[in-house]
Amino acid sequence: MKPNKKVKLVLHKENVPQQSMVYLAAAELLARRDNFLIITHKRPDGDTIGSAAALCRFLRGLGKTAFIYNNREITPKYYPLVAGLVALSHEYVPDTIITVDTASLAMLPTGATAYREDIDIVIDHHESNTRYGKYCLVENRAACGEVIYELIAAFSNEGFLLPADIAEAIYVAVSTDTGCFSYSNTTAESLFVAARCAVSGISLERINKILFRTTSRARAIVESDMMHGIKFYENGRAAVAIISSSIQESTGVSADDLENIASVASSIEGVDIAYTITEIADGECKVSVRTNGAVSANNAAKLFGGGGHRGAAGFVRKGSGKQVRRDIENRLNLVFESEIKTADTQL
């Protein structure tokens, strides 16, 4: 019988910082376990895939049996990271199930919901994480890849060198969630982890070219259409853009093409918060919220049942792009009111 109570990963060791103790406890837990299945979130991005690939390769390096759940939404851009690591057979029965970069059970991919009552370890970096696993290693960092790096470091001696394949996976995770280290969530720790990856000899030029300096023709057309229809509110402090299903169909744009498109509207001068509404299947919209730090994207997303970080968050909502835009319009005042109240309490 499996315990229902969530257990904090803390070891009582003398002369070890408390933060390090959490990672040491997690490392000891992984050392005791075997037959791992690592689950990425739905609509997987570079952070969840890179984190899963790095952790899976590391566990295999320890002599463990480890696979990544066969998330059908993994795109061609990122599949090379997990090639040879995916559990393609339904006959594989894991003993230990881990989620990475997955803030809540609602973010589990189709098919993986069968494991929702059996999540053993949650590894994440979202402040909105719901602590749904039996053990939770959650730290508010720029990317889950940073948490994976610290976990690997807990197994290693000071000055250890990451294997190149693990370093590349971690670099992809951290660089994509920080916009190649340009977003406000980038910290000294983010840059340190990236440096440790670079020391392993990976080609930063090649990776950055693939991830950040290659734009498809379809993406260019979609971005132009999105910006043509953008609307501004609150004296230009808020922007709402829509990526319609019709423009997606006419251009054949892929999920890889659309990655990080949410950062476009937030780059406009004077915009403190930007919503990018993408029409998806079943009459729903995926909404990405980006801010410059003056407003909390997490609080804005919570108004619609979502969440994330202060600078980046999201939610899914029923309705067309225009309907969801109206819903956002009706609640924008709440976003700015909550920020004013928060600032007042800090004076």
Into how many domains do the coordinates divide? 2
Helix content: 40-55%
Shape: globular
What is the tally of helical segments?
A: 13
Distance from first to last alpha carbon: 50 Å
Indicate the proportion of strand residues: 15-25%
- CATH top level class name of the largest domain: Alpha Beta
Low-pLDDT stretches: 1-14, 340-347
Major beta sheet, strand line-up: 1-6-5-4-2-3
> Structural class of the secondary structure composition?
alpha/beta
CATH topology assignment of the largest domain: inorganic pyrophosphatase (n-terminal core)
CATH architecture of the largest domain: Alpha-Beta Complex
Overall pLDDT score: 90
What Rg do the Cα atoms give? 20 Å
| Helix and strand element order | EHEHEHEEEHHHHHEEHHHEEHEEH
Q: In this structure, how is the largest beta sheet organized?
A: 6 strands, parallel
CATH homologous superfamily designation of the largest domain: inorganic pyrophosphatase (n-terminal core)
**Count of distinct strands:** 12
